[in-house]
Amino acid sequence: MSNDSIRPTSRLRRIVFGKSINLGDQSIFHNLSLVAFFAWVGLGADGLSSSCYGPAEAFLALGQHTFLAVFVALGTALTIGVISAAYSQIIELFPTGGGGYVVASRLLSPKVGMVSGCALLIDYVLTITLSVASGADAVFSFLPAAFLPYRLPTAVAGVVALIVLNLRGVKESVMTLVPIFMTFVATHAVAIGYGVFAHLSDMPALAARLGQDVTAARSELGGLGMLLLVLHAYSMGAGTYTGIEAVSNGLPILREPREKTGKRTMLYMALSLTLTVVGIITCYLLFDVRPQDGKTLNAVLFENVVAGWGPDLGGGFVLVTLVSEALLLFVAAQAGFVDGPRVLSNMALDRWLPARFALLSDRLVTQNGILLMGVSALVLMVVSHGSVDLLIVLYSINVFITFVLSQLGMVRHWWEVRGQRVAWKKGLLLNGLGLALTLFILVMVTWVKFFEGGWVTILITAGLAAAALGVKRHYDRVGRQIKKLDVLRAVVDPQNPYTPPIPVNPEPAGQPDLGAPTAVIFVNGFNGLGIHTLLSTVRLFGKDIKNYVFVQIGVVDAAVFQGAAELSRLKAGMQRDLESYAAVMRERGFHAEAHWAVGTDIVAELTELAPALRERFPRAIFCGGQLVFEKETFVTRLLHNYVIFALQRQLYRMGLPFIIMPVRLDLPEWFAD
To answer: What topology does it adopt in the membrane (predicted)?
Structure first.
């Protein structure tokens, strides 16, 4: 097709979202995957950006007893290390992707996994909303107060921009964000390194002072009171750990070998997050940072660090550092767009959510999932007016539900395989410690934030879980009805003593009669639905049809788009199923042949095949089956594929005859008789 023939809407779509990706390209999976460095950028930004607010929350929770920040910093470093190591074990056990949904589903139960997945979805929506809202706050803190009315529209525009970037594809979105991420890393490394180095000579005095302060606090608060204060502050920094799970969930987009790449990415994330968070908390203490109106605690810290650098150098450095923080918060929303649709697609494949969330666009991204996550974040942004104070109350609870269930699943796994593997004791100890830490934080965060608005998050998550149960029940009920149609496979079996409902051609075909009436039947696997459509076609046209052409499109969805092996299995399965249909008709003396293609859009692929088939068989009539429900409702339209009607419209525009064969979910009349 020439560029001149491309419609203006198609040309605009190509400019905005990029050209379609060729599934026939053998290097496609390699080219679209991420090496550890880019995965660290795309998946690690969420965790690293938490240093903009996590350490501050923990430090401020200590009140006047700021010296206890040393223990909070040590506890935070220990927790990051334990959770990261525990998730590295999950990566090893689930090398094709082991997020909270998959782990809980496989190691606990499907329903528990569904709850974990729902919690994770809400958390990813909050990640997008909170990150963009926090970034907008940081940006507008540099501008005059007159610009504040534009803060919310700017935040909304930020979400829209991220939606477009992700619709173009993960790798393109990550490449765009690399400079921002690296600027943040560089500026914070300089600020923390300089802040600690400048106080090296004071360390003995600071250590002595710390001992004195601990003794004084013990007299004032008591040993138990001091411990409870430290634990409270430690749990209030829970937002620090929210991005760690992203790597194990995002394994399908990593470069092969995925297990090795995933572990390396997790190491990069754990080290960068630990050094940044511990460094910031330490510098809070070293510079005796106190909150100031209109400034973040990090802004106060960086101003103190560069106080002796001069107004130009110091002021410029603080500006660049804080701008990098603001922009990284926008980048952090990327984790929601990368992993949120991945969870959606996995749950859709297991029929907890509408199947359409597992479909891919021509850019090989889960377009429906990206749009749902983005639109949900936009709605939440508008409803909350982008209030960071409100959003942060809703945050953190859900991700720790997933953490707890994942660690519980791993503990159960190690216990069940005890004695079978040398490393089971190490695994049980590590995941057991991870379970204890994450469960403690979940209980503390829920207790503190529940009456401040955290109940809203729990209520929404429970509502989503209830909806998922309803979707699953519907799919299971329809699946049982469809399964009944599979008895038709025995009807067309030539070895079956039952009289076949397909008549035998009295003049067995040798070569195809290209000028004779031909039935082009669209099928999806050798199953009861396809056979029902075939039998309906035979019943309608009788012996008039001389040629039968069976056509199937292999849909490349999130399950198939895991690697070249899955794509090869899809093609082999289609060829096997289509040959089964062709064999049925050849046994009865008709000419039969099969055609197939793979793609992400069934209608586009079929409309591309149809003209060539009509040219080969001028008297071709196209047929396809469509499920018919006793009552068509919004739910059935949402949960089921009505692509056959879209295909009919496209073929009508091309002047091609198309007949829809209704498939009622009960046995056909000729079999009932």
So the answer is: Multi-pass membrane protein
Question: Could you tell me the CATH number of the domain that includes residue 568?
Answer: 3.40.50.620
Q: What is the pLDDT of residues 340-370, one digit of tens each?
A: 887 888 888 788 988 777 765 444 446 778 8
Do 314 and 405 share a domain, yes or no?
yes
Query: In this model, does residue 210 exceed pLDDT 60?
Result: yes
Mean pLDDT calculated for residue range 420-430: 81
How does the average pLDDT of the chain come out, rounded?
A: 79
Pairing of strands 518-522, 658-664: unpaired
Domain count, the chain: 2
Q: What CA–CA distance (Å, rounded) separates 23 from 514?
A: 31
Q: Which tokens belong to 627?
A: 């499920």
- What is the C-alpha separation between 610 and 656, in angstroms, rounded? 8
Q: What are phi and psi of 245, to 5 degrees?
A: -70, -20
In angstroms, the CA 373 to CA 125 distance is 6
In-domain check, residue 256: yes
Range of the domain at 108: 29-450
- 417 and 523 part of one domain: no
pTM above 0.85, yes or no: no
Residues 605, 597 contacting (CB under 8 angstroms): yes
Stretch 456-482: mean pLDDT, rounded? 88
Same domain, 151 and 223: yes
Contact 277, 51 (CB under 8 A): yes
